[in-house]
Amino acid sequence: MLLLALLTTHFVASLAEPRLIQQLRELGLANLLEQEVRPNVPRNSASYDFIVVGAGAAGCTLAARLSENPQWRVALIEAGGVENIAHLTPVMAGQLQLTASNWNYHSVPQRLACRGMNNHECALPRGKILGGTSSMNFMIYNRGNRRDFDAWAERGNHGWSYDEVLPYFLRSESAQLQGLEHSPYHNHSGPLSVEDVRYRSSLVHAYVRAAEQAGHSRTDYNGQSQLGVSYVQANTLNGRRHSAYSAYIQPVRRLRPNLHVFPFTRATRVLIDVATKSAQGIELVYKQRTYKFRAHKEVILSAGAFNSPQLLMLSGIGPEDNLRAIGLPVVQALPVGKLLYDHMCHFGPTFVTNTTGQTIFPTSVTLSDILSFYLAGNPATRLSSIGGVEALTFLKSPRSQRPDDWPDLEFIFVAGSLASDEGTALKMGANFKDEIYDTLYRPLQLASQDHFTLLVMQFHPKSVGRLWLHNRNPFTWPKIDPNYFQNEEDVEYLLDGIKEAIRITQMPALQALGTRLLDRPVPGCEDQRFGSDDYWRCSIRTMSYTLHHQVATCRMGPATDPTAVVSPELKVHGMRKLRVVDTSVIPISPTAHTNAAAFMIGEKAADLIRGDWL
Ligand SMILES: Cc1cc2nc3c(=O)[nH]c(=O)nc-3n(C[C@H](O)[C@H](O)[C@H](O)COP(=O)(O)OP(=O)(O)OC[C@H]3O[C@@H](n4cnc5c(N)ncnc54)[C@H](O)[C@@H]3O)c2cc1C
Ligand SMILES: *[C@@H]1O[C@H](CO)[C@@H](O)[C@H](O)[C@H]1NC(C)=O
Ligand SMILES: *[C@@H]1O[C@H](CO)[C@@H](O)[C@H](O)[C@H]1NC(C)=O
Predict the structure, then answer these.
(1) What is the pLDDT of residues 403-454, one digit of tens each?
(2) Are 56 and 303 in contact (CB under 8 A)?
(3) Which atom belonging to ligand 1 lies closest to the Cα atom of 80?
(4) 126 lines ligand 1 (CB under 6 A)
(5) Most buried residue among 70, 201, 297, 527 by CB atoms closer than 10 A?
(6) Could you name the active-site residues (predicted)?
(7) Which atom of ligand 1 sits closest to the CA of residue 593?
(8) Is there a binding annotation on residue 276?
């Protein structure tokens, strides 16, 4: 790691050399050059056709598509700064949670979950940087099930069925996936790169074979059927992170005088003409000074599932009781933040093996890995591992009430655990107590014991959370109560998953590596017999680990739907010239991680907006 730091310093110091700049471009590290670009300084009363708030996955996509029209002036406002070499290095994904590019939210203390976290507060990281959460996530590319989108459409969201959204997923995608060159489910010429991870541990090969031996067939989880096991598909380009910013904005930023990007700039509210209920522009703060921007056509909030609802409420759009309680006049009563769904996981089980050198430890990154990755541009070193995630398995639970082709659970295979960074990042990023790390994972680290973890995730939880404001200061956090595991059945689904994960590890391919369950009891669960159902139930409520797929805080639905905040055209109900375009509009948890959907929503919104104004 020290070497990495030295190399980075060397790189940055020599940026002035034109030959090196050319080399960086060729290596796909062009983002580093952005450090030379001074941020745009806002001009008061500047006016634009469209103001997009938030340069995250959806916001970058939308701003890039709208600014393709040279007649339209587009402002893209972002609270965070620019990506650096750490963001581009996939194995460092976990470390990013400890940097200023994380908003660093926590939940309110949970009663029934996150007992392994300090004060029972689950950490809820979000990206605060050009690229948003796509610049600090784990880069897993996963769209969802046909039935997810068909269910959105059945709720009155016309235009959002699977057949109608698939073209937008494809429009964003540029796939380099072995064996899927001719698949109708993949495009090869969109802006966002989707690749196989070219570094693979021997553990993942054994896992994929064992899953097959247990009856899970090989599949492309973004293709015809999700069910089965797949090596992970990642948003990387030549083994480096490919964020929304790198994919959509960085390549065009200098070429489009009509696109103004404002990093380090915080939107504090939408300016609204109360008589006509129409958005006039936004108020923003840059270096402690307040500015106003005007929007001729529309203001679009793409600030993510926590900040878009916050900005609506700060602007007087939200639940009447909440707005009154904090002394904000109500412009439009809407159920903003009233619903919050997420994908809660069990961190584990973890399994130890007789292999050596296969688990990701920082000490296992060699000098030759570093030189090979940074200087030769080799995408097959450990540095391209997306935080150790190597394979996904989609499966049914025996208690499922859903159709057979609609998975209930996912296993995320990780060639590591909290020990993968020796307790320096993931543990803190997730707010785990020291006791958990010291008991379960420090011994693995000290012994350099090879191991892997199967995170078990439930796709369709019944527990529902919410988000609200406790004051009207735009610089404080909204209160977030995900209310995890309030519904007992959610715990039972994860228990089903844990049992199946253990069964897979009993198959010959993994037994050949001496695979066995890490059998140290989770602190707080010692009273239960190790491995019993009650033990795992306790473990689920202790080792609760969200994969950060929060949705529905600005839920999409027709005007007749009392839970809806935006229409199927993503317009805020009852308002004019105001839309929300990000994952907060997703009406129910999808059978997927949520990044791909954010790009799809950005692409579709661009078409909806063009349809209205051209
Ligand atoms: C640690 C982590 C790992 C994840 N891993 C994966 C994964 O592997 N695969 C996957 O599919 N999904 C993953 N996700 C989820 C996924 O990345 C997000 O759901 C998705 O990127 C959200 O996109 P978005 O456009 O809705 O919002 P974001 O990308 O969060 O964008 C919102 C942007 O708005 C900015 N902003 C907010 N408020 C303001 C304001 N007031 N003024 C100016 N700017 C503002 C933010 O800084 C941010 O840049 C992960 C999430 C996290 C946190
Ligand atoms: C692939 O992406 C390009 C660029 O976005 C788009 O023009 C094309 O229509 C897409 N192809 C398919 C098959 O969707
Ligand atoms: C794995 O190691 C353990 C402990 O040394 C040993 O008992 C076991 O036989 C080994 N298993 C395999 C398959 O090598």
Answers:
(1) 999 999 999 999 999 998 888 889 999 999 999 999 999 999 999 999 999 9
(2) yes
(3) 47
(4) yes
(5) 201
(6) 549, 593
(7) 11
(8) no
